## 1
Amino acid sequence: MLNAAFTAAADAEIAQLKADRVYKRLNHLESPQGARVRMEGRGEVIVLSSNNYLGLANHPTVVDAGVDALRQYGAGTASVRFICGTFALHRVLERELAELAGTPAALSYVSAWNANEAFTPTHAGPDDMVISDELNHASIIDSIRLAKSITKCRSAVYKHSDMDDLKAKLEGSRDARRRFIWTDGVFSMEGSIAKLPEILELAREFDAVVIMDDSHATGVLGATGRGTAEHFGVIGEVDVITSTLGKALGGAAGGYVAGAESVVDLLTQRSRPQLFSNALPPTVAASSLAAVRVLRAEPERVTRLRENANWFRGAIREAGFAPLEGETPIVPIIVGETALAIQMSELLLDQGVFVTGFGFPVVPKGEARVRCQVSADHTRDDLEQVVRAFQVAGKKAGLLK
Ligand SMILES: Cc1ncc(COP(=O)(O)O)c(C=O)c1O
């Protein structure tokens, strides 16, 4: 017998989410991810809410590499890496990810979520202080929570990109054995870039370790897409960089931690998502490796992404919207209430533009937004069509006159 009370409670919660109009309905795609996709029940739509920044999710080289690896290695090792071996392919991938990040070593995980979750409990001990930007990704926040409960490290949160507050938190933790500063490279809901040079300066002043999650910066920032460190000309100066393979680098899944040999090796030795969970499937590892190589061989994709993002920011502003200022391909348009963000995304989908509205608790109350994400794969026609759709939807929703 199933537990009826348990199911009834879940039913009630789901009904409440629907009544509050914050229930997330999944849209099903019938074609590969790209600038335009076929959506079940909708036909062709332009995608403006994917992290497929470089358009590599369906790149022939990336797809073929996955197929070839499936034939060469099969589906997987059927256990965790230290127990039953690891594929040579993972070693090559990790070497090239380290080169991309500008660090001596890297270790892959099945997701960036896992990579982040692995880091803090492995490295932050009871006498250490972990200091985190308030807008850091949920996986960083959970990683710190986990570390606090496992190793009893201390933690503090500084106001978003507020260097005075970070400094105060560092001052207040002089007694700690070590200080870790955790930051996103690019903040996913704002599209803003971390003040990395200032963070590094403070880290030097207070002898702190900097860990940066570059998930929205890898393949995006810097002249050749090597991320936030390249953007600021400080490659090799960030102690630890984590990132995802699930966005610009092919978009399947996977993540990694890049840093010094021993720092990474300790993760192999001790991090629980590594010790108690399988490695990336070879298909995904090979596709990601191919994506890294396409990025290295074709930096013009990064240039195109930047040009598209700049054009879109200007055009959407001219159309009467006020996107958050920034220089990344994440272009958030604040609309206020969650219901309005959801209404905007529905009105846009009616016109063939797929872009998601985000509300509380993903973003602060009253700051619900439609988050646009531009890809190198969008043509000018795609983006012009998007701007026209925004004008129509904006008028219907009462955001534009
Ligand atoms: C900043 C950041 N870190 C980590 C992740 C998690 O990435 P993954 O899908 O590889 O777990 C995301 C994905 O949303 C992200 O935006």
Note: The chain has a mean pLDDT of 96.
## 2
Amino acid sequence: MNYNHLLAKRTARIKASAIREILKVVSQPGMISLAGGLPAPASFPLEIIDELSSLVINKYGSKAFQYSATEGFPELRDALTILLAQKGIHVTADDVCITSGSQGLLDGVGKVLISPGDKVVVEAPTYLGALQAFNSYGPEYICVPTDDDGIIPEYLEEVLKTQKIKFIYLVPTFQNPTGRTLSLKRRQKVAELIQKYDALLLEDDPYSDLRFRGTALPSIKSMAPDNVIYAGTLSKILAPGFRTGFYIAPAEIRHWLLLAKQGVDLHTGTYAQAIAAEYITGGYLQKQICRIIDIYKPKQEAMLAAMDAHFPDTFKWSHPEGGMFIWVEGPQDFDAGTMYRKAVEKKVAYVPGKYFYAHDGDGLGTMRLNFTVTDPELIEKAIHTLSDVIKAG
Ligand SMILES: Cc1ncc(COP(=O)(O)O)c(C=O)c1O
């Protein structure tokens, strides 16, 4: 039987992720991968999780395995208020809602807000998983250019002034894929613009805790609370397998997000939420963040030093103060897609940057390099190899 005619129109809009195809290559023997976006497995606090698993069973008993509220496990919602206060977001547990990863929220926002043809503003480049989540709802993307300080407010204002948009999607800190951070001045400007033009911002913030250097910046949510849905996650500071994300949204939007989530999964896994709650209230999170930074910082330094030593002068790259990625921009005639095949032959994988652009044909000379899963010596070797491949042309 042919099933294609059975597919919904929105299903046909979903494309297989190119990154998944790339990640298959990564598992080949001897490959050094700078391609993935995974946290370092060595950072997962397995012993603590082991202890907390028993604690949760003793403390909550069957409650940890029962259906629970769509909003989230009360103890976790409560615990997250402390984390959020550190980012200048002062809320009560009732304001915090839990999702199945922040990816669950991205899909929820798409479902609740986007009708086919609606305009959604994204950075160029932006997080591929957000594009995938929104795509099936049929938006038209308005791509706003970015530079070393993140999205350029003048271009954003031009869009807000002239077009009717549904929402803006930004990753302001240690962005995926660029690693770049929106400067304080620009955060203030974005906050001012969304208030001036009555626009809604989805602020996706999975990486801000992974700061190796410099001073933490306030969230845009803390500057314009009524205009922002703030999304956080425990994926990069505990473990992604918990599939535990969270958000703070204006009340009317939260209402619809919760109804949409009821139809998807009723609620995020109770047991994972209970362990996450104990993990935060037990004071493990701050220590774990320091531990992750201790693992990532030398890896990032090794990558930047190797790039300084080997990459041609015609290339430029981001120097993030944290996060998981470095973004490379080659000269005009550089094609990161063609070079990808040559690099794979030499056993190094990365992600060509074009996949992070909403519009085909953009970003052909760019690439995303990840430094979190590979050891510093192998990072140095991989960058050396990439430079050789670039220079060989
Ligand atoms: C910018 C951004 N948002 C959201 C996610 C999804 O994270 P999770 O669903 O694990 O919380 C990721 C994952 O890499 C990401 O980079």
Note: The radius of gyration is 21 Å.
